[in-house]
């Protein structure tokens, strides 16, 4: 490359650099202020740990209550309230489920009239959950199909099929907590069922005693198990009657609440066609639906029920 060409290229570079440096520098503008996020946005975009911390801060005030104040409000809480409180977080669960907190459960039982005494074979929290929580005792499913008052369990359809055992008519059937179910065939039969785990436990103990060839211990064991089963079966009618009365009370309260809501929404007095079987069937079907009675459900119920209205001003 010739010297003339090299000098021309160098001169062009210097001129471009000079023009770049001759441009006035842009004034740096301050960044736009950030928009403050609302509480809803914070709750939506926060992490799981932040949400857990936020929930803990909400109930920290209740956790800091002195034990005397908690015991003072305890008689006004129902057993279902105590169960819901124990399921709130781990500290409350440790406090309420501790054996020294039996007085909390006993005071809550006094707020319910006619509650049967707790059998000695089960704990008080489990017994309260069986009476007042409509959920499966094994998996927690809300669709309960069977309420076994002898074994004190509520069962959904899958758990009922997998955990219930048909008892054969032998001498071991009288040693197990069982319930009778009427089945139709050629004649009405009383078929006995029991939990499979109870059946397996009784059978294992019985076989161990038979192998030991200790007839005295076997007779004593059979006598104690039979007496315990008879004692448990004494509570069955009382528990069954209590659950029936409790269900009727919940049904009446739900019927009264829905009736008032319907009358309020339609600005008038509702005329019930109680002599129409079709209306009665629709009404009881509507009451048994396990859904919250929101405004949308109430407003759409008149078309389902075909309710007549009388307006007054």
UniProtKB/TrEMBL annotation:
Residues 19-29 have a biased composition (Basic and acidic residues). It comes from the Eukaryota. Residues 1-41 are annotated as: Disordered. Residues 59-108 form the F-box domain. Transmembrane segments: none annotated. Signal peptide: none annotated. This is F-box domain-containing protein.
């Amino acid at each position: 490359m010739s010297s003339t060409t090299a000098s021309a290229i160098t001169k062009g570079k210097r001129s471009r650099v000079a023009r770049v440096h001759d441009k006035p520098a842009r004034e740096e503008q301050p960044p736009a202020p950030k928009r403050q996020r609302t509480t809803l946005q914070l709750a939506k975009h926060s992490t799981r740990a932040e949400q857990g911390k936020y929930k803990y801060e909400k109930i920290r005030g209740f956790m800091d209550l002195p034990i005397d104040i908690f015991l003072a409000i305890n008689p006004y809480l129902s057993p279902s309230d105590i169960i819901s409180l124990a399921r709130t977080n781990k500290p409350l669960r440790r406090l309420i489920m501790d054996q020294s907190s039996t007085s909390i459960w006993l005071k809550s039982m006094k707020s319910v009239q006619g509650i049967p005494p707790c059998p000695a074979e089960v704990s008080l929290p489990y017994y309260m959950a069986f009476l007042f929580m409509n959920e499966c005792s094994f998996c927690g499913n809300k669709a309960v199909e069977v309420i076994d008052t002898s074994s004190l369990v509520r069962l959904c359809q899958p758990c009922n099929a997998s955990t219930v055992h048909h008892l054969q008519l032998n001498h071991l059937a009288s040693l197990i907590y069982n319930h009778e179910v009427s089945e139709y065939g050629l004649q009405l039969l009383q078929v006995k069922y029991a939990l499979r785990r109870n059946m397996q436990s009784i059978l294992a103990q019985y076989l161990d005693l038979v192998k030991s060839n200790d007839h005295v211990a076997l007779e004593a064991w059979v006598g104690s198990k039979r007496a315990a089963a008879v004692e448990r079966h004494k509570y069955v009618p009382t528990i069954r009657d209590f659950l029936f009365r409790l269900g009727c009370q919940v049904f009446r309260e739900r019927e009264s609440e829905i009736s008032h809501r319907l009358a309020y929404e339609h600005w008038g007095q509702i005329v019930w066609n109680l002599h129409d079987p079709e209306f009665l069937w629709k009404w009881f079907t509507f009451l048994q639906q396990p859904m919250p009675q929101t405004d949308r459900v109430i407003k759409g119920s008149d078309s389902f029920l075909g309710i007549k209205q009388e307006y007054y001003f």
